[in-house]
Amino acid sequence: MAFVLSGGASLGACQAGMLEALYEQGIRPDLLVGTSAGAINAAL
Length: 44
Known about the structure:
Layout lengths: L1 E4 L3 H16 L6 E4 L2 H7 L1
Helix pairs in contact: 1-2
């Protein structure tokens, strides 16, 4: 499974919450790809 995270400051904040919720449920991607704010979230 891959997560593709787009850019945009407000989307970056939304993505952080989404990723945290998915990780809490044990859902882990095999690949993370992102641009701009999405790249920062993918790196963390």
